[in-house]
Design a protein that fits this description.
Blueprint: H1 3-25, E1 32-33, H2 48-56, H3 61-74, H4 76-88, H5 93-106, H6 114-122, E2 132-133, E3 136-137, H7 138-141, H8 156-171, E4 175-176, E5 179-180, H9 186-190, H10 207-212, H11 214-221, H12 231-239, H13 241-263, E6 265-266, H14 271-280, H15 283-297, H16 307-314, H17 316-320
Parallel strand pairs: 1-6
Antiparallel strand pairs: 2-3, 4-5
Helix pairs in contact: 1-8, 1-13, 1-15, 3-5, 4-5, 4-13, 5-14, 5-16, 12-13, 13-14, 13-15, 14-16
Amino acid sequence: MNGRDKRIVRRLLTSLLIAVALVNSAPAFAMQTVPAGNRHAEQPDIPGASVRRTKGTKSSFDLKYEKVHELLATDRELMAKIRKVSSAYGINPIHVIGAIVGEHTYNVDAYDRLQAYYVKAASYAGESFRFAYDGENVDDFVARPQFAQCKGKSDSYTLWSCREDVWESDFRGKTVGGESFPNNRFSAVFFQPFYAGQTFGLGQVNPLTALMLSDLVSRVSGYPKLNEKNAGDVYKAIMDPDISLAFVAASIRRSIDDYKEIAGMDISGNPGLTATLYNVGNSRQRAAALAAKNRSSGATVWPEENYYGWLINDKLDELKGLL
């Protein structure tokens, strides 16, 4: 079996894993509600990059947490927007609060008020951006034959999830046609032209995540659908607080639905888990892996929070007080 055949087999196995999980999690067994709280007694390790970034700004995680908590506690306009968007997507607003608090505690510092986010978003207006790697636009890249299996997928979530899977199996860290590709995430290679790891705005939404959730956000919130050929529109969506909040809520809605549909687990009562998934992404693949683990173990294996979600559950009573 040559390398190309092996990659095709890997992709088929990944698709089969998710398909089997969906079949087995449908009406075949009762939905399980994930218990509230943390599974870990102590906070899991915080990544070194987050530690270095925070030390570099002469701050601390405690100070950053207090700053974003103060922003939420004092900005009534922002809290009203969070309640409204959460209602539109059928989720408890504590999930959106958890995502924002986690991002601004471990990734960036919060601005003092909502208006500062609008000012920052305006600074990107009219700028010319494109999503590309090594001179190749992403829309040309996904036209390669390796992505043929994704052509029939019309929903933005399944389309870009498929393309991300192909990147992982066929390109990441590999040499294809004499061209070497980085051993890094699809989103970091093609969708972050300023510097690796950069996310944007109030919800710190990644451009690839925005493209994945575009159809859902358009359907629920009425915002125009996004296109990878117009990077400026994508940045406007993730920088503008009003639009960005819709993508935060949509991401949480999607992760809750993925775990229900694929793993047969209701995580909607555990904000630490939705915050974890907001942080790490790939809820579809993670739900499928959990479903497989539960089938093979013969016992219930609960999803676990990471360092980011652990903080949200640990501070849950305090965060609920914001509502």
